[in-house]
Amino acid sequence: MTFQKTGHNFTKIAFKPLHTNLFNIVLLSIFLTIGSGKLYSQNITKKAAAIPTSKQIDKVKTPTVKTVKPDATIKKENDSIKIDTIKQKKAFLDGKVKYRAEKYAKIDQKKKLITLYDKAELYYQDIELKSGIIVMDYEKNEVYAGRIKDSTGAYTQYPNFKQGSNVVEPDSIRFNFKTKKALIWNSRTEQGEFKVKAEITKKENDSVYFLKNARFTTSKDVDNPEYYFQTSKVKFIPGKKVVTGLTNMVIADVPTPIALPFAFFPMSKETSISGIILPSYSDSNTRGFSLQNGGYYFALNNHYDLTVLGDYYTNGSYGMRFESNYADRYKYRGNLNVRFENLINSERGYPDYSKQKIYNIQWSHSRDSKSNPNSSFSASVNLGSSKYFRQSINQANIGSNLNNTLSSSISYSKTFNTIPQARMSLTATHSQNTQTQEINMTLPTLQASVDRIYPFVGKDGAKKGFIKNINLQYNLSGKNSFVTTDSLFFKPQMFRDAKTGIEHTIPLSTNFKLFKYFSASSSLNYREVWYTKTITRNYDTDQSKVVDKTINGFDAFRTYSFSSSVGTTIYGTFNFGDDKKIKSIRHVMRPSVSYGYTPSFEKYYDSYASDASGTMIKQYSRFETGIFGAPGNSNSNTMGFDLSNTFEAKVNDKDSTMTEPKKIMLLNNLNLSTSYNFDADGVNSLAFSPVRVSGGTQLLNNKMNVNFGATLDPYAINNSGTRINVFNIDNGGSLFRMTSANMTMNYAISSKEKDKPKKEKNSQSERNGGREDDLFGTNTDLSDSRKSQFGTEEEEDKGEDKISEFFNAKLPWDMTFAYSLTYGNNNREKKIIGNSLMISANADITPKWKAGVSTGYDFVQKGVTFTQFRFERDLLSWRMDFNWTPFGTNANWGFFIGIKAGVLSDIKYDKRSRTNR
Question: Are 415 and 389 in contact, with CB atoms under 8 Å apart?
Fold first, then answer.
């Protein structure tokens, strides 16, 4: 603020002795004061016209102040304010600037510079700048940042420029705060999976960059990448796209012939974007040259996508695949795959020419229980042509190829919160034998039930004793069943042959304690079955055979049965002493005895002549072709015996500091079961059923699973192999005759459990009925070859050097063994039916080389089982693998090399042989 000086012409009036009217003088002072207050802040270049002194004096002596025209002077001063166009100077930055440095922060007011040196940091709005040296020119609104040299002369403390989510790490940078433009030298930045380095970068605004002499790579080290794309001119829009001029691919600093006149790289921040999937080249001896796995990926929205892939062979064969994944958080998730192939072998006119169409449909769906706790829906579908996995031109899926069964299930269930509570479920199932091509379907199955009702429970709700525990329940089961083949699947004949039935059951049961130590239960079961079709059976003389005729119409039968059981638990401990290695062994036995009685329902049986003479009369039930079977025509009066055992031991731990002994499970289970039929006639039925023995345990620190089973028959057989009513011991044999036995062992070892690589589940093979492990080899889904066969991509991306010192390597390995032995002696053959050993091994030969093998040997057939060799090389940003199945019907090989990053997944070389299936 400035004040008027006394040198102005107004001072003569201010210091003149007052000889005039006091009122006029005060009035004039007020006007002058107001004028002075208006003018103090103005930079007036031209002075206002002064009032002549003589006139002022004259007017003061004679009270004629009004003739001085004070209004004009004041008006002139007011006008000068109104037409003022000079604005107050604005600050050069719109926000606060925070800065600091370790060595010094110097301010040069003359040059208007702020210099920060050594570990300098500057923060302004959404901009963060860290560097060795920062120079800010607050007159030009610019900042410069660069690296500095350390004591050895090497450059250090490179700039780190961050604006919003974009980070640039150059050698130096020059940035204007007002225009937001920048010049960047040797910038390094990451955009998605890409790493970008450019000699000079011009930042035009927040969304556009221009780069000169830039390189793009997915390698971890952008300064020394194993490969990169070199281009001279680039327009770069962060988070969206990169458009380049002439682009050349460079591998190991050697330019390759791979070049494009221009290139476009999408860099969306979204998890996935739509785009073309480039095909791979292949050839076949019987189908010619081909393009495979070409198509388009549709990122439809955040909840579902669609991939369309196709194959084409020059002999006319083609394939189409539609793959979709969908999910809605806390509601549901799933995927749908539809595959169709038109296969043509050889050429028309040749003797080996053939043409067929195969397909496969897979659908998996699950709903989150949080969405609706009272209902659920799930689906697991795998159906199609029985020959699909053996003849597909685009699947090398060994687990699916060796499996003989395809199965599906779709189910919906709902709980009704009534009293009593009711439940209902609808299920559709499918089972398909790929060898016989027989298909069994239930479409649908209805299950409904009402919770147990305790009619004799008192007001206190206690269920104690025989009477109060009496309860009843209602269950309903309805089925619509189809048995057909591949050729008749979903054709009219399939629906004409459908079997439909409804079963009602009402069990009335109770349970109670008996003699304090025994648990007993009894039940009375009522069963009623409804059918829409029955049969009548007669001998047809025209066809000379027995013929069944279908009778359409409602029919039903009703049965009842009684059952009871009693069981207990017995504990036994054998102590050997605290100083022994084995301190004690604990044996737990759970014996149980059951009894069941079902009367004969002969009223539902008729007779028919089985030959032309009519002398051979047999019985049949009109319900026996029904889906729930037919009632029995003989009494069933059976008592069953079951005994389960477990054995565990307490041993002194090798660690002397342990105060408690260690528990070891000796036998997880050892079960025996048999039954006795009181109404057996000794001809059509025998009293004792075979004794079934089964058990299992874990050995070698629970790494080996051992399971075994055997069937022991107390009766002898005649020369034709038929069981006779003579005990085997009375026929010169042992107490029991072992008719069958089996044993399986699985053992997995590794270098160290913590170093064992995590392998992705063999999900495709397991989904088709195969194994989770790789004893049957690994799947090769040709639509995505970027994934490692040995470990997860996250582990590969770590890229850790596992060599700690020379000849001291930390290289993980793992092995899996599976042994199976089956013995058969139904007809005194005493023969080993199956005896095979399978092995799978994976190892890191070097930190970057991995190898694996799956093989086995069949000691009965005396031959090597399915064998597969696997090799893989980690090339940092690239992956290379080789698979080889040397012999058998599935003999093939495959070689792949490509970039791991998904954005460049189309840059690959994939060559695979094809079996002549």
Answer: no
CATH number at residue 210: 2.60.450.10
CA 815 to CA 648: how far, in whole Å? Answer: 28
Burial of 808 (0-12, 13-18, 19+ CB in 10 A): exposed
Angle between helices 70-82 and 22-39 (to 10 degrees): 10
Cα–Cα distance for residue pair 584/374, rounded to 1 Å:
49
Give 565-623 pLDDT, tens digit per residue: 999 999 999 888 877 888 899 999 999 999 999 999 999 999 998 888 878 888 999 99
Q: What is the dihedral of CA 260, 262, 265, 266, to 10 degrees?
A: -140
Report whether 229 contacts 245 (CB < 8 A): no
Q: Could you give the 3-state DSSP secondary structure of residue 456?
A: coil
Q: Tell me the CA distances in angstroms from 516 to 510, 567, 641, one per residue in order.
A: 17, 12, 21
Eight-class DSSP state of 48: P
Do 284 and 166 reside in the same domain of the chain? no
pLDDT at residue 8 above 80? no
DSSP string, 257-295: EEEESSEEEE--SSS---EEE--EEEEETTTEEEEEEEE
Question: Residue 454 gets which letter from DSSP?
Answer: -
> What predicted TM-score, i.e. pTM, was given to this entire model?
0.64
CA 11, 12, 17, 21 dihedral sign is negative
Looking at 352, 368, 384, the residue that finishes a domain is 368
Do 778 and 861 share a structural domain? yes
Rounded to 5, what percent of the chain is helix, strand, coil? Answer: 10, 55, 35
Cβ-proximal residues to 526 (8 Å cutoff; 6+ apart), any chain: 505, 506, 507, 508, 558, 559, 560
Contact (Cβ atoms closer than 8 angstroms) between residue 584 and residue 576:
yes
Domain boundaries, position 68: 11-82
Statement to judge: residues 820 and 916 lie in one domain = yes
* Inside any domain, residue 470: no
Residue 392 covered by a domain: no
Contact 448, 426 (CB under 8 A): no
**Alpha-carbon distance 185 to 203, whole Å?**
11
